Amino acid sequence: MKRKLVVLSLLAVGAVSLLAFNFFDAPKADRMPNIVLVYIDDMGFGDLGRTGAVDYTTPNFDDMASKGMFLSQYYTPQAVCTASRAGLLTGCYPNRLGFAGATDHSAKTGINADEETIAELLKAKGYATAAYGKWHLGFQKQFLPLQHGFDEYFGIPYSNDMWPNHPLNKNYYPPLPLIEGNETIATNPDQSQFTTWFTERTMGFIKKNKDKPFFVYLAHPMPHVPLFVSDKFKGKSKQGLYGDVIMELDWSIGQLRKTLKEQGLAENTLFIVTSDNGPWLTYGNHAGSSGGFREGKGTTFEGGHRVPFIAEWPGVIPAGVVSNNLSAGIDVLPTIVEATGAKLPVKRIDGVSLLANLKGDLSVKPRDAFYFYYRRNNLEAVRQGTWKLVFPHPGRTNEGFEPGNDGQPGRANENFNHPGGLYDLRRDPGERYNVMFDYPEVMAELTKTAEKARKDLGDDLTGHPGENRRPLGRVSQ
């Protein structure tokens, strides 16, 4: 009888222990995933070690890609600062929301309060949210991050060159504000500390919120000119200041990954790193590499739009996979929504979820086409499958012009009349060989795709206003 009682007691203790294990551990395992989204300013496709960087190394970027997934056919929403960020955070083509170009201190517009950002969608799910670094969706209080779903903000309201030391417009810009929450706490701050400050703030936010789901958006101002680097990386590369800056950004990625691992959060965190547009080629040795793609920032050629994208989520995203499926920055919001179980915005968006691809099913083709808009609302190109149709348009070209050096820009033609053409990106990613006369059936198909875009979003080049564009936010009177 005693032996039976002992056995029963041991079984009871085991059951209680199992219940205790399930009670205390299951919520952590089943908790909604954390999201870390890093947006790097002006980093080109060729700026990483794995994509051809020379005379400096990026071990953390490269290790992240080896343990996660690299998207080789990823396009930023638009090849310029403000519009790109609008597309990333709302899941919409920027011109649907009225965004174009890069706004500055004189702008009276910004993100409309009716648009829902990633932060607002996740905040509704109980996430802690924070934004650090460059914002650039309007600098007045009504447009700042705290009014658009973020609990915390520390950073600059627009590009770091919009200050009195601009190389071409020295008397145009006021002192650069450094903002905490909604208040300016300093002007013309020490830019050599930007990468360190914003990384440390992100690390602190992760540690502070380790026991609940969080979303942190780290928008590094570098390597947008003017370039600055802290003493810990000054002179470390063999490529000069630009290489030093990229090495410090690589350090930042390493610090964040280390923090997630030390806090026991790595396996429950979707970590995404990408860039807002391609390199600003006119700045020469203070600009990055397009990786051999045509042109750079400020153009709808591949060098302006095709940028690195790395996603890591241990146990969910298979290690070391390269996806060659078409994808875009407007797809980040719906991907995060599906990963977290949040609700999509009430208003129409343009993005599609990439989660099936990120989980390893590359047979799924979530995106078939992408529209390349620039200037106020010019549809300059469309891509469908591996084909890209470029329409005749005025635009920037750096070709034939000597770039500047050491922080001074060279010349570029901002109103070059590009003749357009059809390019097979599978064989010609450099967009050098126009084959429009060889593939009339492809021309016809992509022209139909363009007409859909013009009807929906408009096109200034052909005089289409668009049926479904929405207004920008405007300064309250």
TrEMBL record:
Residue ranges with Basic and acidic residues bias: 450-470
Recorded superkingdom: Bacteria
Keywords on record: Hydrolase, Signal
First and last residue of the signal peptide: 1-20
Every Sulfatase N-terminal domain range: 33-341
GO molecular function, one term: arylsulfatase activity
InterPro entries per UniProt: Alkaline_phosphatase_core_sf, Sulfatase, Sulfatase_N
Ranges where the record places region Disordered: 450-477
Family: Belongs to the sulfatase family.
PANTHER family, sorted: ARYLSULFATASE FAMILY MEMBER, ENDO-4-O-SULFATASE
Name under which the protein is recorded: Arylsulfatase
Organism annotation: Persicitalea jodogahamensis
Lineage: Bacteria, Pseudomonadati, Bacteroidota, Cytophagia, Cytophagales
Gene: arsA
